[in-house]
Amino acid sequence: MLNTFVKGIKVAEEGSSLIHPVNEEAVNLFNAEKIVERDIRIAYYSKEINVIRALEGQLITESFKAIPKVEKEFIVSDTENDILKIIVMNRYQKSHPVVGFINNFNLTKGAIASTVAHDSHNIIAVGTNDKDIVRAINLLIECKGGISIVNGDFEEYHLPLPVAGLMSNTNGFELAEKYNFLDNKAKEFGSKLNAPFMTLSFMALLVIPKLKISDKGLFDGVNFKFTSVYS
């Protein structure tokens, strides 16, 4: 397309916009406060836990029961069996994070987090250890929304999404380049999913079965009621 006209006025020519940009303040509602590692600890109460199984390219999930990995009376991420902690935290007000467990992300190190989490778009994170999960979440709280990835003290990257925690006001080509970098980094950390952040974004979509997680707890989409992480 050579030219684009709106109501007789040329607004683009040979792929370049002729519309002058206008600076506007980003609209956002983000009141979450930073957390610490003890906020996402989950005590060992049961011999089995309910686990979400993410599926490649699907909005639906499966679920299964598993024996948890326990350290010092707390359940922790189990990278050997690919049962990782998944966290959802209300980003609109001060709240306590909710902890669950998920399979099929296959991360062997680090953690990823995002505020693109349909439908409520709270903070959602999955990771191999509490320290990295907390840091990935806190990075998003610092920039009031976006996506992040953390691996110990060596690597941490984040892509701010200042418009409602969902969109950026920067150049689209630069944004795509940064997103691709984070996506590839998640795969370097072990994820075998085609789109790790996209898959993560739908793990909080409660109306799609079978098992999902929200800031109110684990949700059974088949029986349409909240359930416990403990089996």
The largest sheet, given as strand count, sense and whether it forms a barrel, is:
8 strands, mixed
Number of strands: 16
**What is the distance, rounded to the nearest whole angstrom, between the alpha carbons of the first and last residues?**
58 Å
What count of domains describes the coordinates?
1
Number of helical regions: 3
Helix content: 10-25%
Give the strand order of the largest sheet, numbering strands 1, 2, ... along the chain: 5-4-9-8-11-10-12-13
Q: How large is the radius of gyration? A: 19 Å
Give the SSE string: EEEEEEEEEEEHEEHHEEE
Structural class: alpha+beta
Beta-strand share of residues: 25-35%
Overall mean pLDDT score?
Answer: 95
Q: How would you sum up the global shape?
A: elongated
Which blocks of ≥5 consecutive residues have pLDDT under 50? none
